[in-house]
Write a structure and sequence with these properties.
The chain is α+β, with helices and mostly antiparallel strands and 1056 residues long. It contains 31 helices and 34 strands. Strands 1-5-6-4-2-3 form a six-stranded mixed β-sheet, with helices on both faces. This is TIGR03663 family protein.
């Protein structure tokens, strides 16, 4: 009588286990050692890919991928661009950002998970590679330096690698079984690979060629009665060919002699997309029709029942990716035509400029174990082929069996990959992933067949192999040491290490060596296994250093345009500086396009960080506590930061050493010499490069970090700041340069019976007349050489407020306010005695007759941000001068340029623009005619005096000491005068005059506080002029309402 067990209301079995728990417990108990081995290996692979995943700074390309993924998360902004490869990466990363937030770790999380899946998916390859072969392949992919590194790197290649595995799995298993699920796996993995990156077309071409040739060979050999397996190969060829057909439009363009990449994505591309899609649909129908004509060649009914569904699903999903879920229809053209077209076009560019042996070179440095397995598999492939092709063996093959399917497929995949990527123009280190994958699979398959002939089931054999592998590894590391090189402590230590490794290796290899000498069976093969284990240990050493020790070092060859460790250091420094600022400070960090990648990623959602144009920087930059500037624009920004900032130079992006490009037959000479051998071993084991250090790496892009001088000690607390612009003692403190000028006279109210208020500008006209502008009284006064007042013009008028102005001639031709001023700064007389005045805040120039009558005005107020909309629009003009040939040159201070006019106000030339380069200005104030028609310009906020030729060409500059012109105070506006053999400029806030030679040499300085009288404030010299007849320097002291006339000095070494 049977017993019936029932489940109670709570779902509990009579033995006390719940239903679900019982089922899970039963499943766990059913797991074999092999299952646990695979689970353990997968967890190890996951751990190796996750540990320290966010430690390394994002590289150039990584930051592009990470940021554009974030744009989708932030505002669902994505527009496919073939330059950025396929859309799959951006969409899956955006999903992870939504789930876990955006960071360096989450940016690389999906590649790490996919890299782990690349190992785990080999579980389903046990029926293809054999149980040992699949496990060996999984171990090799777990420790592969290329796969490990690029599983921790946000690029598309690891996605293509996983899809290639699944693609191959679907193809082989469909041919073996005929189940349609494998056909769907083939199509879906092919889809994801193609929308990830265009190099998947190389994989597709290899797989398609294998299927097509395999089907053709099978059908031809059987003369019209093909095996079922051959028809299934035809199925895979048909499916791949039909699905990919619309992508192949660029090849059609090449065949008709046109460029593969359309110039734009207009109507031409639309027509090409439609033609491609219609062609694909036509192929679906054509293959179905031809099935009835020649069934052997056109696959099985499975294909034709599923092909329309596969085609529709494939292209619906592909277009959804390319169009950002159909929100950006331009992705149809850029994806279907542009993706492959752009990629083909780039092969002619040959980015990287690598030699044909680039991939073998990388393989010898990183993937030597798969290479060794590949070499060992050649004789195994030959013997396997001979065994399977024997007549007796062929007669026993079933209709479904294709004995050469797996080895033939893997061999074609390996050879095709090396050939395809070598022929392709663009060779990059991340593409090694696609070469390692088939090499590992082929080598694992062959070694699995070989291992089946060895007696590795005994514990003694396993122990012998492990010990032998360790022994070989000891010898390898011993080869990297140079014993007996010297007698110092370091040399003795290295000798002892070498000796220990050699003796240790001999001891570990002793059991196998003894067995081999005694002729014991299998010991020779066990030595081969031991050598393989040793290479595995060495591979783990290389992978460990690449992924966890030198992960941000250009000493490694698998990096390219790689982020440096300095990036993270700078980000930490910025955080520290900002923590020292008051809350709500505003913009705290500025960065330019040269450092955008990777900095744009790190500043993606920080409103206190702004991008600026480093090509034409403005003085507004000086408000930011921290400025980042690429080395290429450092000369542009240096004048703006040299005074108030401490600067340190950092590495942004670097590239590996590439001396191997020069390799030729002559390079092999002396290869076995001791020193040469040591160099190669250092490069191989430790990535040491003779004569190169990371601190002085030649292949690097630099950037500068400028920090406000008062904030620099927060991050650089040393007494001497680590600047690239070394601070030098202020030359103004050098007492040897102090000049003791004689005071000729003081022109003030007591002398000239004119109550000057705030004299700003001064010039010397014909017959020694002094022309003085008074900014507070809005008057221009003309004095005789002896200080007597000759005449005055002006009065206050702000033409923006008409009620403040007078009409000087009533119903006459003059406009309201003509002849009046709003803080005039500069004034100059021509040879005829006509007076030209820079009417600063009325933004115009006025001309007066020699006796002070108004004649003409030109110019108009114009917004300082829009100088080019009106060529004679002015903003705050200050300096003005008359050239020898009569032209008038005005410093359009607010627009950071000079304007040359005729005496009648006709614009003749515009000189310069805003910026820090030659003939660019930041707050130009004074203009002085020099010899040969040159002009000297005080370029205030750039901290220099520029020399411009009469044809508007920059001739040079004189940099002023850091302590000069150091503020934006409204009256800190320096003027310049000519002295014999040099120049004299005013330093308003420091109450001094400074003398320079024409070559820029600092000749001396005069402290004007020496002429400060009782009850007066320190002098503020603004305007300056030199009277050659009386040999005096006339200075406008704006702070004390006076003019100072000083005797010309005898300068120490005036340059002629």
């Amino acid at each position: 009588m049977s017993t019936v067990h029932t489940v109670g209301a709570a779902g509990r079995h009579p033995n006390g286990e719940t239903g679900a728990a019982g089922r899970w417990g039963s499943r766990l108990r059913s797991l074999t050692f092999e299952h646990w081995l695979w689970v353990s290996l997968t967890l190890v692979a996951l751990g190796m890919r996750l540990v320290g995943l966010g430690d390394r700074a994002l590289s150039h390309d990584e930051s592009l991928h990470a940021l554009y993924s974030w744009y989708i998360t932030d505002a669902f902004r994505y527009s496919h661009d073939p330059m950025m490869h396929g859309p799959f990466l951006f969409h899956v990363n955006a999903l992870l950002y939504l789930l876990f937030g955006a960071s360096d770790f989450t940016a690389r999380l999906f590649p790490a998970l996919v890299g782990t899946a690349t190992v785990a998916v080999l579980w389903w390859f046990r029926g293809i590679l054999g149980r040992r072969g699949a496990l060996l392949a999984a171990v090799l992919l777990t420790i592969s330096p290329s796969l490990l590194f690029h599983s921790r790197y946000i690029r598309n290649d690891i996605y293509v690698a996983l899809c290639s595995l699944l693609w191959a799995l679907g193809l082989i298993r469909y041919v073996q079984t005929g189940f349609q699920r494998w056909l769907y796996l083939l199509a879906s993995s092919m889809l994801v690979a193609l929308v990830s990156k265009e190099n998947a077309f190389i994989t597709g071409a290899i797989f398609g060629l294998f299927s097509l040739c395999g089907a053709g060979w099978g059908i031809w050999r059987t003369r019209g009665a093909p095996r079922l397996a051959a028809c299934r190969l035809a199925d895979t060829a048909i499916v791949m060919g039909v699905l990919v057909a619309p992508f192949l439009v660029p090849f059609a363009l090449i065949l008709v002699g046109r460029e593969p990449m359309p110039v734009d994505y207009g109507s031409q591309s639309t027509a090409l997309v439609v033609a491609g899609l219609l062609g694909g649909i036509g192929l679906v129908g054509a293959t179905g029709f031809l099935r009835f004509l020649r069934p052997a060649w056109w696959g099985t009914p499975v294909t034709h029942r599923n092909l329309p569904i596969l085609f529709a699903g494939f292209w619906f999903v592909a277009l959804a990716f390319y169009t950002n879920l159909f929100s950006a229809v331009s992705g149809i053209q850029s994806g279907v035509v542009g993706s492959l077209g752009y990629w083909l076009e780039q092969q002619g560019v040959m980015r990287g400029g690598q030699p044909w042996f680039y991939y073998p070179y990388l393989a010898l440095l990183y993937e030597f174990l798969p290479l060794a397995l590949l070499a060992a598999s050649v004789p195994l492939l030959v013997s396997y082929s001979l065994a399977k092709s024997s007549p007796g063996r062929q007669s026993n093959q079933s209709d479904n069996e294709v004995p050469w399917l797996v080895p033939g497929f893997l061999l074609i995949w390996t050879i095709g990959s090396y050939a395809g990527y070598t022929v392709a123009g663009e060779k990059m280190p991340w593409l090694m992933v696609h070469l390692v994958l088939p090499t590992v699979l082929l080598g694992s398959w062959a070694i699995s067949k070989w291992l089946s002939t060895l007696a590795l089931d005994s514990k003694q054999a396993i122990v012998a192999c492990v010990l032998g592998g360790a022994g070989f590894a000891c010898w390898m590391f011993a080869a990297g040491r140079t014993p007996l090189s010297d007698s110092d402590r370091e040399a003795i230590r290295e000798t002892m290490q070498w000796l220990s490794l050699v003796v240790g290796g001999c001891g570990l290899l002793a059991p196998l060596a003894v067995g081999l000498v005694q002729g014991r069976s299998g010991h020779g093969r066990l030595l081969g296994v031991s050598a393989g284990l040793a290479l595995g240990i060495l591979t783990l050493h290389v992978a460990w250093n690449l992924a966890y020790v030198r992960y941000d070092s250009a000493r490694e060859y698998l990096v390219y345009a790689h982020g440096t460790p300095d990036v993270k250091q700078v980000l930490a420094d910025i955080k520290a500086v900002r923590s020292a600022l008051p809350e709500g400070y505003g913009s705290t960090v500025l960065y330019d396009h040269e450092v955008s990648w990777p900095m744009a990623w790190y500043f993606r959602d920080d409103e206190a960080v702004q991008l600026y144009d480093g090509r034409s920087p403005t003085a507004d930059l000086q408000e930011a506590p921290v400025i980042l500037a690429g080395a290429a624009i450092a000369p542009n920004i240096r004048p703006l930061v040299r005074r108030d900032y401490v600067t340190r130079r950092f590495r942004l992006i670097w590239w590996p050493e590439e001396s191997y490009k020069e390799f030729n037959a002559a390079s092999l000479q002396g290869v076995f010499h001791r020193d040469r051998r040591r160099q190669w071993l250092d490069r191989f084991l430790w990535r040491e490069h003779s004569g190169l250090t990371e601190e002085a790496w030649p292949h690097v892009s630099y950037f500068d970090m400028h920090v406000k001088r008062d904030l620099a000690p927060v991050i650089w607390p040393s007494t001497k700041f680590p600047t690239i612009y070394e601070m030098t003692p202020d030359p103004m403190l050098n007492s040897e340069l102090d000049l003791q000028l004689d005071l000729a006279r003081v022109v003030d109210a007591s002398w000239a019976q004119v109550e000057l208020a705030r004299p700003l500008g001064v010039s010397v006209g014909p017959e020694g007349r002094r022309v003085v502008t008074d900014g507070d009284r809005d008057i221009v006064s003309v004095f005789g050489r002896n200080g007597e007042l000759l005449w005055e013009v002006g009065g206050h008028c702000d033409i923006a407020s008409p009620e403040t102005c007078d009409d000087l001639d009533g119903d006459g031709p003059f406009r309201l306010g003509d002849g009046q001023f709003n803080e005039p700064w500069g004034a100059a007389m021509d040879a005829n005695g006509r007076l030209f005045v820079a009417d600063t805040w009325n933004h115009r120039v006025q001309r007066f007759s020699p006796d002070g009558r108004f004649e003409l005005a030109w110019g108009a107020a114009l917004d300082k941000e829009l100088p080019n909309r009106n060529p004679i629009g002015l903003y705050g003009p200050r300096g003005i001068t008359v050239e020898a040939h009569g032209s008038i040159v005005v410093a359009d201070t607010g627009h950071h340029r000079l304007l040359r006019f005729s005496p009648d106000g006709v614009l003749l030339a515009e000189i310069g623009s805003s910026g820090t380069g030659p003939a660019q200005f930041q707050e130009p104030v004074a203009v002085l005619p020099g010899a040969n028609g040159d002009l000297w310009v005080t370029d205030t906020w750039n901290g220099r005096i520029q020399r411009i030729s009469g044809t508007n060409v920059p001739l040079g500059e004189i940099s002023v000491p850091l302590s000069m012109w150091s503020t934006r105070y409204p009256d800190d506006k320096p003027f310049v005068g000519a002295v014999p053999g040099g120049l004299v400029v005013t330093d308003p806030l420091n109450s001094r005059l400074v003398f320079f030679g024409l070559d820029g040499e600092l000749l001396g300085h005069q402290d004007l506080t020496a002429f400060q009288e009782a009850g007066q404030v320190p002098p503020m010299p603004v305007g300056i002029a030199v009277d050659g007849l009386t040999e005096t320097i006339v200075v406008a002291d704006a702070a004390n309402s006076r003019l100072l006339e000083l005797r010309l000095p005898s300068l120490p070494s005036a340059s002629q």
